[in-house]
C-alpha cells in the first residue's frame, strides 16, 4: 500500500507548498511572469554541431556503450556527434511513418495507468513500424519504488570522493540496475548547485562548485549510459530551494548562468546525455519549461544538445512551451489527475491549425526516439519493465528481478572514500588497542520501523543514509554503525555498549563515563518539499544537528575525554558549539552514504581505508556567513522574486572574496598520513586539431568567437592546452589517497572570484612513495563568459594557479605561460 500512496503523494509537489505559511508573512519582492503569445511560430531545426574529424585518442568518436576509459586526469574529449547523427537518422525514419496523433503521443506522458513514474505509451504495432514507448524512473541514486535494487550513496557523497573512477563505476552500476528492471530513462543525475546551504535537495546533487559538479555529472552519465539507461540531467535550471519551487522567479545574470548554474549541464551534454529535465521554477520571469533562452538558446544551440527536454512533473505551463524547446511533458496531465494535457490533444490542435509547425513536432518526436536508439534500446534483448512503481507487492506486475549483483561493494567503498576526516587529535584515529567503546545517539542504530519505514524515506529515526523525496530508493538492507562496529570490535575483544536515547542526558553521561572511547552520532536530514519532517518542508529550517545533537555531543564530551563525533548530514552544519571541545578527539563527516553506512564507517575507524574524502561545500562558522539564504514568505499565489545578487560568488568563492574565515573550507579533508607536494611544471600540449586554428588564434588574442551551434561544447575549446605536473610524496606512515586540487586565479580584469576550481586528480601512495600527478587545463577552463560578445574569451592579463590540498591549502604556485 505504501507505494501507491507514496507515489501519488510524490506527484503532488504544488499542493504541499501552498500550505507552507499559514500566517502569511509580508510578501518579499514579487515577480510577474511572461507567457508565450499564442501565434504561429516558425521552426528551424538545430543540426548536429560540426566538429573536426575524429582524432583517435584525442577526439575519439564515441558511443555510449563504449565511452573513453576513466582517468584521474581525463585528456580525451569524446565526440558523441557521429553517434547522435546515426540515432537521429534512425529516429527520423521511424517518425516519418507516424501519424500526427502518434507523434504527439511520443511527446506526452501517460499516467497513472502504467508502471513507471513517467511513461510514454507504445506506438502499435510494436513489431512493425511502431515503437515500444518509454519507462522513466527516479532516482539519481537507485531505482525508486522497486525491490532487489541497491541504495547507492547520494550524489553529495559521490562528489565528496573527488574520485572519477568511483563516480563512473557508480553510474555504470546504476545504469545496469535500471536496465535490469526494464527502465529506459533514469531521472538523474541532479545538478542544482547548493546555492543555499539549507536547500532541501542539495544532497541529490554534487555540491557547491560547478567544476566539481560538472565532472561528477560527466562521469556519472558516461557510466549510466554505458550501462544502457538514458540519463536525464536535472533540474534545468536554478531550482535551488524547495520553498515555493513552482512559484519562484530567479533573477540570474547571463554570465552567472553560464559559468555557474549551466556548466554541469554543459558537461552532461558533453557526456552524451540523452535527456534533460526542465525545472519547476522561473528564470528571469519565464518558467523553465517554456524558456526559450535556457532551452533553445543555451542548451540546444550553444551546447549543441541533440537529445530531448522533458518537463519536471507538472512543470509544463503551456502548449507553446514546445516552441521554446520543450519536447516532452511529464507525467502528461496539466496537473496531476486533471485528465487534460498541454500536449496531447492541445498539441495536435496547435499543429493542425499551424500555430506550431509540423517540423517542430517531428523534431520533438525525433529527439525523443533518438535517445532510445542512441542507447541501443532498440535491441531485442532490452528487458521489458518487470516491476510496478505503484504497487510493489502486486505479484502480477512485479517479478522481483534481483539486479543488485555485488554492487554493495562499491557502495561500501564510496561510503568510505566520501567520509571526510575533519579533526584528529593525537592520532585518535585509526582506532588501536581500544578495550571498551560506547556508541551514543539514535543515529548509531537502526530505525525501529526498518530501513524503509517512512514513505520516500520521509522520516529521521535511526542512522541516516539517504535524504527524502523522489531522490530516494528502497534500501535492500541497511547496515547500521551499531551492527558493523560490533562485528568489527569482536575481532579485538573490545567491549561494546550503546545508549541510543538522544534526550536522556543523565543516561548518556552515565553510559559514557569510564569507557575508553565514546562515539557520538548526530544527523541532519532534508528532502523534497512535498514531505514535511519535523517542520522541515523539504529545505532545512536551520543548520544545526537534529534531535538535540549539539547538546548530545556536549554531554558526551563533558563525560568522556576521548569523544569521536560522527555526522550523517545532508549538507553543512554549524558545529561551533562543540568543534573545539578539548575532549572531542576526532570528527568524521560521513554524509549520507547509502545502504552500507555502518561498514563504510568501520573501514575508516579501523584504518582499512585511509580517509581521502574532501568537502564538496564550505562549513561556515555562522549560517549568516553563507552568500545566499532561502527566500521565504508570500501568499500561495505569489511569484517570489529571488535575486542572485552573489553572482559568481557562491560557496568558497564568497568566503575568499569577502575574507570570511570558514570553519572548514571547500576541498578540505584530513588523512591518517601526510603528503608533500613538489616540482611543479606546466607545459603546452601539442595541438592535433588543424581544423579550428582560426578559432584558437582568436581565443589566444583575447577575441570572442562567434556564437553558434555547439559553440560552447566545441572540441577546440575543450581539447587539452596545458598539462600541469607535480609530484606528491606520502611522508607519513599509512598507505592513503590524496586529492590534489587546482585553483585558477584570473587577472583583476576578469572580475572573477579569487580562486576558481579548474582541476583535481587522485593518487594512492604507500608510505615514502612519490608519484607524478598531472592536471590538464583547456581553453574553456581559462575562459570567462563575455556577456556583450556572447562568447568564451580569454581574459586580458596574467592567469596564475595554485595546486594544493584544499581551496585554502595551497602548496605549489604557477603561472599560465603568456
Ligand atoms: C521531482 C523530480 C522527479 C519527478 C518524478 C518531481 O517532483 O522534482 O526530480 O524526477 O518528480 O518523480
From TrEMBL:
It catalyses: Hydrolysis of terminal, non-reducing beta-D-glucosyl residues with release of beta-D-glucose. GO terms for biological process: cellulose catabolic process. Pathway: Glycan metabolism; cellulose degradation. InterPro entries: Cellulose_deg_GH3, Fn3-like, GH, Glyco_hydro_3_C, Glyco_hydro_3_C_sf, Glyco_hydro_3_N, Glyco_hydro_3_N_sf, Ig-like_fold. SMART domains: Fn3_like. Its EC number is 3.2.1.21. The keyword Calcium does not apply. The keyword Signal applies. Residues 1-18 form the signal peptide. Belongs to the glycosyl hydrolase 3 family. This is beta-glucosidase. It comes from Heliocybe sulcata.
Amino acid at each position: 500500500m505504501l507505494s501507491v500512496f507514496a507515489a501519488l503523494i510524490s506527484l503532488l509537489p504544488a499542493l504541499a507548498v501552498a500550505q507552507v505559511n499559514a500566517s502569511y508573512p509580508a510578501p518579499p519582492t514579487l515577480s510577474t511572469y511572461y507567457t508565450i503569445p499564442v501565434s504561429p511560430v516558425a521552426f528551424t531545426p538545430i543540426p548536429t554541431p560540426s566538429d573536426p574529424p575524429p582524432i583517435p585518442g584525442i577526439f575519439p568518436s564515441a558511443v555510449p556503450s563504449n565511452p573513453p576509459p576513466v582517468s584521474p586526469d581525463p585528456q580525451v574529449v569524446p565526440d558523441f556527434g557521429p553517434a547522435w547523427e546515426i540515432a537521429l537518422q534512425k529516429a527520423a525514419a521511424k517518425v516519418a511513418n507516424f501519424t500526427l496523433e502518434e507523434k504527439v503521443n511520443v511527446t506526452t506522458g501517460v499516467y497513472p495507468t502504467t508502471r513507471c513514474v513517467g511513461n510514454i505509451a507504445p506506438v502499435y504495432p510494436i513489431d512493425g513500424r511502431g515503437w515500444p514507448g518509454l519507462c522513466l524512473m527516479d532516482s539519481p541514486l537507485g531505482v525508486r519504488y522497486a525491490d532487489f535494487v541497491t541504495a547507492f550513496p547520494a550524489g553529495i557523497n559521490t562528489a565528496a570522493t573527488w574520485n572519477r573512477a568511483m563516480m563512473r563505476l557508480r553510474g555504470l552500476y546504476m545504469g545496469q540496475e535500471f536496465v535490469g528492471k526494464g527502465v529506459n530513462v533514469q531521472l538523474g543525475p541532479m545538478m542544482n548547485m547548493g546555492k543555499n546551504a539549507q536547500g532541501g535537495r542539495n544532497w541529490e546533487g554534487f555540491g557547491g562548485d560547478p567544476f566539481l559538479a560538472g565532472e561528477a555529472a560527466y562521469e556519472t552519465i558516461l557510466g549510466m549510459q554505458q550501462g544502457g539507461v538514458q540519463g536525464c540531467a536535472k533540474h534545468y535550471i536554478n531550482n535551488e530551494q524547495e520553498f515555493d519551487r513552482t512559484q519562484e522567479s530567479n533573477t540570474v545574470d547571463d554570465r552567472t548562468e553560464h559559468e555557474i548554474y549551466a556548466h554541469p549541464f554543459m558537461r552532461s551534454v558533453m557526456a552524451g546525455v540523452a535527456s534533460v529535465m526542465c525545472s519547476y521554477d522561473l528564470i528571469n520571469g519565464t518558467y523553465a519549461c517554456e524558456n526559450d533562452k535556457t532551452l533553445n538558446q543555451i542548451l540546444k544551440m550553444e551546447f549543441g544538445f541533440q537529445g530531448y527536454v522533458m518537463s519536471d512533473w507538472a512543470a509544463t505551463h503551456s502548449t507553446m512551451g514546445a516552441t521554446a524547446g520543450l519536447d516532452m511533458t511529464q507525467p502528461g496531465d496539466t496537473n496531476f489527475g486533471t485528465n487534460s494535457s498541454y500536449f496531447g490533444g492541445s498539441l495536435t490542435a496547435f499543429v493542425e491549425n499551424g500555430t506550431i509547425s509540423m517540423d517542430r513536432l517531428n523534431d520533438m518526436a525525433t529527439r525523443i526516439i533518438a535517445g532510445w536508439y542512441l542507447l541501443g534500446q532498440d535491441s531485442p534483448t532490452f528487458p521489458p519493465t518487470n516491476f510496478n512503481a505503484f504497487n510493489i507487492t502486486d505479484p502480477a506486475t512485479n517479478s522481483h528481478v534481483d539486479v543488485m549483483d555485488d554492487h554493495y561493494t562499491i557502495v561500501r567503498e564510496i561510503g568510505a572514500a566520501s567520509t571526510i576526516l575533519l579533526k584528529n587529535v593525537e592520532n585518535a584515529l585509526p582506532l588501536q588497542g581500544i578495550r571498551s567503546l560506547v556508541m551514543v545517539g539514535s543515529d548509531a542504530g537502526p530505525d525501529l520501523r526498518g530501513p524503509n519505514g517512512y514513505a520516500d524515506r520521509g522520516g529521521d529515526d535511526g542512522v541516516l543514509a539517504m535524504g527524502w523525496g523522489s531522490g530516494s530508493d528502497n534500501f535492500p538492507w541497511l547496515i547500521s554503525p551499531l551492527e558493523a562496529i560490533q562485528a568489527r570490535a569482536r575481532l579485538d575483544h573490545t567491549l561494546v555498549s550503546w545508549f541510543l536515547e538522544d534526550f536522556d542526558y543523565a543516561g548518556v553521561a552515565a553510559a559514557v563515563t569510564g569507557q575508553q572511547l565514546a562515539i557520538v552520532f548526530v544527523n541532519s536530514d532534508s528532502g523534497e518539499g512535498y514531505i514535511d519532517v519535523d517542520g522541515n518542508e523539504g529545505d532545512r529550517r536551520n543548520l544545526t544537528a537534529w534531535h538535540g545533537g549539539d547538546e548530545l555531543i556536549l554531554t558526551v564530551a563533558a563525560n568522556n575525554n576521548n569523544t569521536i563525533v560522527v555526522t550523517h548530514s545532508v549538507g553543512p552544519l554549524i558545529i561551533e558549539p562543540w568543534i573545539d571541545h578539548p575532549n572531542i578527539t576526532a570528527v568524521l563527516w560521513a554524509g549520507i552514504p547509502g545502504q552500507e553506512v555502518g561498514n563504510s564507517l568501520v573501514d575508516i575507524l579501523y584504518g582499512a581505508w585511509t580517509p581521502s574524502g574532501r568537502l564538496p561545500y564550505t562549513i561556515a562558522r555562522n549560517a549568516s556567513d553563507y552568500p545566499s539564504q532561502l527566500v521565504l514568505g508570500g501568499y500561495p499565489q505569489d511569484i517570489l522574486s529571488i535575486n542572485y545578487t552573489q553572482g559568481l560568488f557562491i560557496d568558497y568563492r564568497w568566503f575568499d572574496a569577502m575574507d570570511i574565515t570558514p570553519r572548514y573550507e571547500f576541498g578540505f579533508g584530513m588523512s591518517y598520513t601526510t603528503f608533500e607536494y613538489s616540482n611543479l611544471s606546466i607545459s603546452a600540449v601539442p595541438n592535433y586539431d588543424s581544423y579550428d586554428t582560426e578559432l584558437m588564434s582568436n581565443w589566444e588574442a583575447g577575441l570572442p568567437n562567434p556564437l553558434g551551434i555547439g559553440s560552447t561544447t566545441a572540441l577546440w575549446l575543450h581539447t587539452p592546452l596545458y598539462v600541469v605536473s607535480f609530484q606528491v610524496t606520502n611522508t607519513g606512515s599509512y598507505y592513503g589517497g590524496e586529492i590534489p586540487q587546482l585553483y585558477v586565479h584570473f587577472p583583476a580584469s576578469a572580475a572573477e572570484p579569487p580562486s576558481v576550481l579548474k582541476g583535481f586528480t587522485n593518487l594512492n601512495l604507500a608510505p615514502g612513495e612519490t608519484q607524478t600527478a598531472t592536471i590538464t587545463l583547456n581553453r574553456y577552463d581559462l575562459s570567462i563568459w563575455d556577456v556583450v560578445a556572447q562568447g568564451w574569451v580569454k581574459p586580458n592579463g596574467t592567469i596564475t594557479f595554485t595546486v594544493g590540498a584544499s581551496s585554502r591549502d595551497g602548496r605549489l604556485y604557477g603561472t599560465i605561460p603568456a
